[in-house]
């Protein structure tokens, strides 16, 4: 099949106005937030229904073509990058609210709905969708589910997986599966295939609809930012606050991260005192006693010598500004072409783990600046190495590739994960063995063959067949 024949067939399947081959579209929809791989898709298609997605998958099987699913393209593992002339399936037009059930406190939405839109729908209904992160304004629900997105509220609310009660998917063979799509909370009837597709990065099937559970909206959230003298002390602060308060978030960031955000985003530092690390704590204050308890815990941490200063939000706007000190880090450092690693270990092992990684990188590459931040309450660290201004991008990424091998060896020794919440994609697949055993990988490949025997869905992501 020639390129022109393929394009004509795609237009016949979903409409001429939903197939694009212009350069802007190929670059925009053929990549995600990673900058290592150059996008080279052959076409971008925009289906409008599950049936059109099914037709595309069957067409791909018939002609041995590869499909790459594309959501908000905010991923950081090149899971949505098309580098080998694949057809990109973008879900931007499948973004409707299909059902809201106030009794069940659930919504059914199409895969292309923006995360922030779902959050707003929940808020309008007096409810809450708790999965939240900096890219909520552009990421899509289907992509969140396909990478089992985490974010800033995991310590209280868990991962995306914990809120997906049902899915509608098109498998790699072109079958439409209804995976508990009625949203049953109890359904113990054999294998729950729904969970295979959550975190599968579109390698088993394409998610077209999802039924999402909603929660009670938290009330009177307070934000407290503390300057902490060291990483071990950050963990002491976490333990202290967790024993007495039901935290909704516990984040951390290094001082150089704070400096860059303050400089580039026009924000104010939370206080004049400098500290190596900062902890951002969020909690509900439905009763006055909870606010008093937070102040007592803060004073206790100061007395112990763990904390040097702190700032408590006095208004909703101030709470938002304090959150921006943490949430604006990724956007701020993007101008430095950062090499990112999203890793996790058990919470109790974080201080030793971070110290080892920091020492290895600093020892071998003293000219590299390291920016740390992350969801410290669940053991998830984001290691960001910033490209020196006078170093070519290709050489920088090559040197960072060596860094990753050292970092992931430490991850393996600490029995951690090489990808805490961003997936494996192209960037992490060579390191999968640090977290998964050969037997696990063999079973994962067998599952892939069962759902996608011709390897048409996102081939080359997670592992090679």
UniProtKB/TrEMBL annotation:
<dbReference type="InterPro" id="IPR051264">
    <property type="entry name" value="FAD-oxidored/transferase_4"/>
</dbReference>
<dbReference type="GO" id="GO:0046872">
    <property type="term" value="F:metal ion binding"/>
</dbReference>
<comment type="similarity">
    <text>Belongs to the FAD-binding oxidoreductase/transferase type 4 family.</text>
</comment>
<dbReference type="Pfam" id="PF01565">
    <property type="entry name" value="FAD_binding_4"/>
</dbReference>
<dbReference type="InterPro" id="IPR016164">
    <property type="entry name" value="FAD-linked_Oxase-like_C"/>
</dbReference>
<dbReference type="InterPro" id="IPR036318">
    <property type="entry name" value="FAD-bd_PCMH-like_sf"/>
</dbReference>
<keyword id="KW-0560">Oxidoreductase</keyword>
<comment type="subunit">
    <text>Homodimer.</text>
</comment>
<dbReference type="InterPro" id="IPR016169">
    <property type="entry name" value="FAD-bd_PCMH_sub2"/>
</dbReference>
<dbReference type="GO" id="GO:0051990">
    <property type="term" value="F:(R)-2-hydroxyglutarate dehydrogenase activity"/>
</dbReference>
<dbReference type="InterPro" id="IPR016166">
    <property type="entry name" value="FAD-bd_PCMH"/>
</dbReference>
<dbReference type="GO" id="GO:0071949">
    <property type="term" value="F:FAD binding"/>
</dbReference>
<keyword id="KW-0274">FAD</keyword>
<dbReference type="Pfam" id="PF02913">
    <property type="entry name" value="FAD-oxidase_C"/>
</dbReference>
<keyword id="KW-0479">Metal-binding</keyword>
<keyword id="KW-0285">Flavoprotein</keyword>
<dbReference type="InterPro" id="IPR016171">
    <property type="entry name" value="Vanillyl_alc_oxidase_C-sub2"/>
</dbReference>
<protein>
    <recommendedName>
        <fullName>D-2-hydroxyglutarate dehydrogenase</fullName>
        <ecNumber>1.1.99.39</ecNumber>
    </recommendedName>
</protein>
<feature type="domain" description="FAD-binding PCMH-type">
    <location>
        <begin position="37"/>
        <end position="217"/>
    </location>
</feature>
<dbReference type="InterPro" id="IPR004113">
    <property type="entry name" value="FAD-bd_oxidored_4_C"/>
</dbReference>
<keyword id="KW-0862">Zinc</keyword>
<dbReference type="GO" id="GO:0022904">
    <property type="term" value="P:respiratory electron transport chain"/>
</dbReference>
<dbReference type="InterPro" id="IPR016167">
    <property type="entry name" value="FAD-bd_PCMH_sub1"/>
</dbReference>
<dbReference type="InterPro" id="IPR006094">
    <property type="entry name" value="Oxid_FAD_bind_N"/>
</dbReference>
